[in-house]
Amino acid sequence: MAKARIFSGVQPTGNLHLGNYLGAIELWLSLQNKYDCIFSVVDYHAITVSQEPRKLKESILAIAKIMLASGINPDQSVIFQQSALSAHTELAWILNCTAHMGELKKMTQFKEKSAGQKDIVSLGLFAYPVLMAADILLYQTEAVPVGEDQSQHVELARDLARRFNHQFGQTFTVPDLITRPDGARIMGLDDPRKKMSKSAASEYNYIALLDEPDKAAKKIMKAVTDSGQEIKFAPANKPAISNLLTIYSLLSGRTIARLEEEYQGRQYGALKKDLAEAVKIFLSDFQSRLNEITDAQARQVLSAGAAKIAPLAESTLRTAKERLGLTLNNHR
Ligand code: AQP
């Protein structure tokens, strides 16, 4: 029996951080054997905010290498560059014509990213969730594994698929959302009320996957803590310690309950010291795998990935155009 298909992506913007890794990439790894997987470097999403062209080019390859170093197996899963397949933007246009301004205005990420920009915010940033819906729907995706911050966008993809199918006839699979039970939202080290974010104002917000391991350890030691002394998982009262426990649990494979037991009667400093060491080991191992991957390998994986899935993307686009009445004589 054919495996169900999943699709997910990462933007080539800035340094990927532990939130991206634990919330999304590690989740992908856990699904790799069970599903037919498509993972994209979503560069058209990146340009919804200003990017320096030379850096963007480097980041596209860097993300592909990070996926490979994380353990995504290109013989098993597809890794490709979004802009290599024009079907993404073509379908996005079609879906733009079915999406409502009102539902896009409600998107939390748009509100956060456009805050303070007023009228110079790009139309692309506003329409970002529609492009993401096109990314997902092109591949008849059954499920989308993402961090919690993307769940609203996946919900929109589901709504757009249902709307199109209802209006024009069955065309798209309605995808499910997959998030991990713990780690779907890793919080900032400097402010545990907000998610860890590449675009945070301070580099003490995040641990980047490319951070020098000693520097990353210092960031953990400088992370804010909560009032009191008890090491307990209680996100409402102890958001900072709960976040550190979540990260430590995911990196060490020990449950949060076990960590609470181990650190009973000990100070926050002891937890931070051990977590800093775990982060150092994780980053050293990760970076040594990363350093073995060449630009040429990453380029080859991206172009082979695009070639492999192009027929499926084109077939879904062709069906959508036919349903809309855009196809004459069965030609595109
Ligand atoms: N803090 C997080 N905790 C858990 N998962 C997270 N993700 C992002 N931040 C966290 C998940 O990582 C995947 C790739 O994210 P993206 O490249 O699309 O970027 P993003 O969601 O906009 O968040 P970033 O990486 O922090 O960038 P900025 O600063 O631009 O917002 C997604 O599955 C995402 O859910």
UniProtKB/TrEMBL annotation:
Gene Ontology process terms (BP): tryptophanyl-tRNA aminoacylation
Keywords carried by this UniProt record: Aminoacyl-tRNA synthetase, ATP-binding, Cytoplasm, Ligase, Nucleotide-binding, Protein biosynthesis
Major subcellular site: cytoplasm
Annotated Gene Ontology cellular component terms: cytosol
Catalytic reaction list: tRNA(Trp) + L-tryptophan + ATP = L-tryptophyl-tRNA(Trp) + AMP + diphosphate + H(+)
EC number: 6.1.1.2
Subunit structure: Homodimer.
Protein name per UniProt: Tryptophan--tRNA ligase
The species this protein was found in: Candidatus Falkowbacteria bacterium CG23_combo_of_CG06-09_8_20_14_all_49_15
